[in-house]
Amino acid sequence: xxxxxxxxxxxxxxxxxxxxxxxxxxxxxxxxxxxxxxxxxxxxxxxxxxxxxxxxxxxxxxxxxxxxxxxxxxxxxxxxxxxxxxxxxxxxxxxxxxxxxxxxxxxxxxxxxxxxxxxxxxxxxxxxxxxxxxxxxxxxxxxxxxxxxxxxxxxxxxxxxxxxxxxxxxxxxxxxxxxxxxxxxxxxxxxxxxxxxxxxxxxxxxxxxxxxxxxxxxxxxxxxxxxxxxxxxxxxxxxxxxxxxxxxxxxxxxxx
Length: 256
Prior knowledge:
This protein is globular. It is built from eight helices and three strands; from the N terminus they run ααβααββαααα. Strands 1-2-3 form a three-stranded mixed β-sheet, with no helix packed on it. It has a domain at 89-255: Lysozyme, CATH 1.10.530. By secondary structure, the protein is mainly alpha-helical.
C-alpha cells in the first residue's frame, strides 16, 4: 500500500518540502514587486537658454564700441569726368612758360610716379607751347587741347573753329569746314596737366618713345600720324622741334 501524504500540521513534515514552499513564495513576491514597481519618468529637457536683455535705461548707459578711423589726411582727387556732360563758359587760364614746365613735372609725378627726364619734359613742353602760344592761350585748364568725344562725360567748352576733317586718324585730310568743337575743361591747371600725360601714356605710347629720345620733330610726326591733331604733320612736327630747342635755352635754366 502507498503511504498517505504527510499532514502539514504534523511536526514530522520533511525539510525539503518546507524549504521548497518558502522558495516558491519568495519568487512569487519578487516577481510581483518587479511588475508593480513604477517606471521612472523621463528626465525633463533643459530649459532653453534665454539671452539676457538689459532694460533700455541700462543699455543707454553702456559706452558704445570704439571705432577706429583711418589716420592721416584724406587725399582729394579731382575726377576729370563728371557723371554727365556739362558745358561751361570758355574761360582763359593762361600760364607762363616756366609754370607750364613746372606743372608738367608735377603732373608727370602723379601719372608715372616720378619726375620726367629733361628730354621727355622738353618735348612735352614744346607741344603745349605749340598748342597754346607758349602757355598764353590755355583755356579752362586744358593742356594740349584735349577734345571731348561725342560719348564723353564731364565738363567741356565749345569753340567754333575751321578745321580740315577726316574720317579717321589715317585718312587723308578733306575739305575745310566750320565746326563746333568740344574741348575738355578741368578744375585746376594740375588736373589739366595730369589729363595730358594720361592721354599720351594711354593712347600715344609710340610717340612717347620719341619724347624720351628728345626728338620733338619725330614725336610731332608720330602724334600727327596717330590722329592727335587735324593740322598738317610736317609744319606741326617742325614747330615742336623748334620749340624744344627753345626749352633748353629759355626755360630749363629757370627750373633749377
